[in-house]
Specification:
The complex is a heterotrimer of chains A (290), B (237) and C (335). By secondary structure, chain A is mostly helical. Chain A is built from eleven helices and two strands, in the order H-H-H-H-E-E-H-H-H-H-H-H-H. Chain A has a two-stranded antiparallel ribbon. In chain A, a hairpin with a 3-residue loop joins strand 1 and strand 2. The radius of gyration of chain A is 19 Å and the shape is globular. Chain B is an alpha/beta fold. Chain B is built from ten helices and ten strands. In chain B, the strands form two sheets. Chain B has a six-stranded mixed beta sheet, with helices on both faces. Chain B has a four-stranded antiparallel beta sheet with strand order 2-1-4-5, with helices on one face. In chain B, helix 3 packs parallel to helix 6. In chain B, strand 7, helix 7 and strand 8 form a beta-alpha-beta unit. Chain C is mainly alpha-helical and 335 residues long. Chain C has one domain. Chain C contains 16 helices and two strands. Chain C has a two-stranded antiparallel sheet. In chain C, helix 3 runs antiparallel to helix 12, helix 4 packs parallel to helix 6 and helix 10 packs across helix 12. Classes of the chains: A mainly alpha (290), B alpha/beta (237), C mainly alpha (335). The interface between A and C is large, with 48 and 52 residues.
Chain lengths: 290, 237, 335
């Protein structure tokens, strides 16, 4: 029973990260109807920036928030510079550019900061909660919830948040009510990059920092977004926790999976959910009368 | 005579295909003008060109301001509200949120609240539907919401693209009565594009006939109604 | 309706076109003579280029001609390579036989993956294949399969010797011999692709790419064609994988990471989406650019790939093949 409880808790802790990344994925998807395959690499690069600032002597929280701001501006710039000319380009062009970004960020990180594995500090104290779950994991959990709350309030209660939703749902009409649609997309990119940065900085203490750290995690982030329903931030977070728990349970109780085939769990989850429940478990179906 | 909108040599194209070949027309302040024409004549494109939704060339002068080089978002800030073809409501949001978004470019909170009431006053049914997802509204209600959303901009010029499309005759009559009221009570000028020529001429005081991207006939509604060609081709009697 | 794939290739070149025999003959002659002028290592690199070209062609059949995306073709490359390696290593099969066998196993795998995947529209398919590409190395490393795959260590295999009469009469080296085999296989695969594209089936594939709904209403069984195309695409990539395993004489999970998928994808885009022979240039590109890039700065080759990739999308969306086509038209106009 203890093992079971611990697995659930570990699952929730891992799930918090997947949830974080899934939030970023959903954010971009809401804005531009695309999966950003470079989300993981962008988050990894942000984490390196934070690491460099801490190594340069800045206190953790200063570096943390500076990284969020830099990532936000970076995401904004990527949209304005690279994606703006491609707004009406075919899907393939977008995928090509995403892949290009993956290659660029991955390679640059290695070239600037080398490929050696680095440790990354946690802002939370050492130790564990009742011997079941590390305090860093607990902190991570609350950071994710805080992030979700912030996003929820942003979309629900701010003018810009509502305009962003409108611009994503119907760009033509959004322009007609005076929303600057192009900037809303850029804002979506900026926010996604900032959220991704938080995810990267939160997970780096656990998986250590190296250029390929995010690939597998991004896969789980996608799985979380798909399981939760790609259209809702709340669903993405719920999906994240669910995927985290499923991953741990499968690893513990199905001997064939163990700790070695966890990525396959994500693959199976993604394909299964896409096939049988394309809107996700918590996705809203939109009712439209014709 | 004072013109609200003066358009000179307006050209518009979709990629390599030219849709408008140099239109000249003008709108009177406080008037309702209609553009008639068959499918593909360029009516919708004309409206889109005015609000900057297509690539265009030529002069579009609104009250002394040149709109030709402005973006859609900036044009709305000059007081041009466009009710697009197919209504274009934000289907996942509530009716009231749609109205609120209509006032996106304004900052006066109390006036916005008043204007929402004013829209409900014109369209009482929207008040009943205020919390309903826009996607669940009937065709007539959605069209009313689209007009209401445009009114939230406090426009000086309202562009209407086929407001009668797909609506039952009774609803159409109701809608056009309200449009007439809005024009009379608020002095909002309107540029109306319609397939239903008889209906449009009833509301409008001026009319232009558009054929394959060129204006072929123009004049007061009365003179257009009396025109032989128009009667035969567009009014059917 | 906008299509998912940009296709600005000269239609005369893809539909009902005549094979440009002059160019093909020139290409065959140059290709056949080349290994006798090259160093051993360059010959080996030429072999790898051709192997990549076959894999890229496979990916291109899927994306360029059928409008489906795959970020997971490294998985099929891996399946082809491991099929060949396992058959040689564990069962002592003749090496040459394992090459088509690797392709066939991939065809089945691709068809089976395509079967559910065909229900997924463009972007979702890209996501599902992304998941496939990312998870395959882990599967190959799994301890449960270690007996078969050799786990993290991988498997060593050995190429058979060059037939003795060729050594005696022409002094053919191992590298030259395998270059020739790869060359012949590549020509054969390109010939099949050419005929496929210019057949009824090819037109159906492209109709599905350009307008799936219209294609369905014309009576094309879109689902069947889509999963068949996925199978054929995997077949090509599998053949390439099997060849690669034999030529390199070694397979290991880390040769088939997501980066390989990226590499093939880059080759396809740079060579020209929707162009058959562009695949050769794509193969040349992904093999040679890292060499140049490493000279500029170590570890930066993928950054340079990425930048070139993005530039290609802006400057020449139909890739190298499109560029050549454009130049040809210009030259024609001049005379």
């Amino acid at each position: 029973m203890d093992l079971f409880l611990q697995q659930i808790l570990t699952g929730i802790a891992n799930g918090a990260i997947y949830a974080c990344l899934a939030l970023a994925v959903v954010m971009i998807y809401q804005a531009i109807d695309h999966f950003n395959f470079a989300q993981g690499e962008m988050a990894m690069f942000s984490t390196y920036i934070c690491w460099a600032m801490i190594a340069g002597g800045l206190p953790y929280w200063v570096a943390f928030f500076a990284t969020i701001i830099i990532s936000f501006i970076g995401g904004l710039a990527i949209e304005r510079i690279i994606f703006k000319p491609l707004h009406s380009a075919p899907v393939l062009s977008h995928i090509v550019v995403f892949i290009g970004l993956v290659a660029i960020f991955n390679s640059l990180a290695g070239a600037i900061w080398d490929h050696n594995i680095k440790t990354f500090p946690s802002p939370f104290p050492d130790g564990s909660f009742g011997g079941l779950i590390g305090l860093h994991e607990v902190g991570m959990f609350f950071v994710t919830l805080l992030l979700l709350l912030a996003i929820f309030c942003f979309f629900k209660f701010t003018r810009v948040g509502m305009a962003m939703q409108a611009a994503a749902a119907n760009p033509a009409s959004a322009g007609l009510v005076g929303i600057r649609v192009g900037w809303m997309l850029a804002l979506g990119w900026g926010l996604a990059a900032a959220i991704g940065a938080v995810a990267g900085m939160m997970i780096a203490p656990i998986v250590f920092l190296e250029p390929n750290m995010m690939l597998g995690i991004l896969l789980y982030g996608f799985a979380a977004a798909i399981v939760g329903g790609i259209s809702s931030p709340g669903g993405a977070v719920a999906g994240g926790f669910l995927v985290g728990i499923i991953e741990n349970m499968a690893g513990t109780y199905i001997p064939a999976i163990g700790s070695e085939l966890k990525l396959t769990v994500a693959l199976v989850l993604i394909v299964t959910v896409l096939l049988f429940k394309p809107n996700g478990l918590f996705g809203k179906t939109i009712v439209t009368r014709v | 005579m004072s013109h609200l909108l003066e358009v000179k040599g307006l050209e518009a194209s979709y990629g390599p295909t030219k849709a408008l070949h140099g239109l000249d027309f003008s709108l009177e302040k406080g008037g309702v003008t209609t553009i008639l024409g068959a499918n593909g004549a360029g009516k919708t494109t004309t409206l889109r060109a005015i609000s900057g939704m297509v690539t265009r060339k030529g002069q579009i002068n609104l009250n002394g301001t040149e709109l030709g080089s402005l973006s859609t978002a900036d044009i709305t800030r000059k007081g041009v509200a466009h009710v697009p073809e197919g209504r274009g409501t934000f289907v996942r949001m509530s009716a009231e949120d749609n109205l609120r978004l209509g006032a996106y470019s304004r900052n006066d909170k109390t006036a916005i609240a008043e204007d929402i009431e004013r829209v409900y006053n014109y369209f009482p049914i929207l008040k009943q539907r205020r919390n309903q997802q826009a996607g669940t509204l009937s065709g007539g209600e959605a069209q009313m919401l689209a007009v209401g959303r445009a009114l939230m901009l406090r426009p000086i010029l309202l562009l209407l693209d086929e407001p009668s499309f797909g609506l039952a005759p009774l609803i159409v009559q109701e809608l056009f009565d309200i449009l007439k009221r809005i024009n009379a009570e608020e002095g909002v000028s309107m540029l109306l594009v319609e397939q239903n020529a008889a209906l449009a001429l009833e509301l409008a005081d001026h009319a232009y006939l558009l054929e394959t991207g060129n204006i072929v006939i123009s004049g007061t509604s009365q003179s257009i109604i009396e025109n032989e060609t128009v009667r035969r081709s567009y009014l059917g009697y | 309706m906008a299509t998912d794939v940009e296709t600005r290739v000269d239609p005369r070149l893809t539909v009902g076109a005549k094979m440009p025999y002059k160019w093909v003959a020139l290409f065959v002659i140059i290709g056949a003579v080349l290994p006798f002028f090259l160093q051993g290592y360059a010959t080996f690199q030429g072999t790898l280029i051709m192997i990549y070209a076959i894999a890229i062609l496979g990916l291109n059949l899927l994306t360029g001609f059928n409008g489906q995306f795959s970020l997971g073709h490294s998985a099929f490359y891996a399946v082809g390579a491991y099929t060949a390696a396992i058959l040689v290593y564990h069962l002592d099969w003749p090496v040459y036989v394992t090459i088509p066998f690797g392709g066939i196993v991939c065809f089945v795998a691709g068809f089976l993956f395509g079967l559910p995947a065909l229900r997924l529209e463009g972007l979702y398919l890209a996501l599902a294949t992304f998941a496939l590409g990312v998870s395959v190395p882990q599967i190959l490393k799994s301890s449960h399969l270690e007996g078969l795959t050799g786990g993290v260590q991988g498997l060593d295999i050995f190429r058979p010797k060059v037939p003795s009469f060729l050594v005696e009469n022409f002094g053919l080296t191992m590298d030259q011999w395998w270059y020739m085999i790869a060359f012949v296989i590549m020509l054969f695969m390109f010939w099949i692709a050419w005929n496929l594209i210019n057949s009824r089936t090819g037109r159906a594939m492209m109709a599905i790419r350009d307008n799936p709904i219209a294609a369905r209403s014309m009576g094309i069984n879109a689902s069947l064609y889509k999963s068949l195309t996925f199978g054929v695409s995997a077949f090509y990539t599998g053949i390439a994988g099997a060849l690669a395993a034999i030529v390199i004489e070694f397979v290991a999970p880390d040769s088939f990471t997501f980066q390989l998928s990226i590499l093939l994808f880059i080759g396809m885009v740079v060579g020209g989406t929707g162009s058959i022979w562009g695949a050769v240039f794509g193969g040349f590109f992904i093999l040679t650019v890292p060499n140049f890039a490493e000279e500029i700065s170590t570890g930066l080759s993928y950054a340079i790939f990425g930048i070139i990739l993005i530039l290609v999308i802006y400057v020449m969306p139909s890739g190298f093949a499109g560029l050549v086509n454009l130049l040809r038209m210009r030259v024609k106009k001049m005379f």
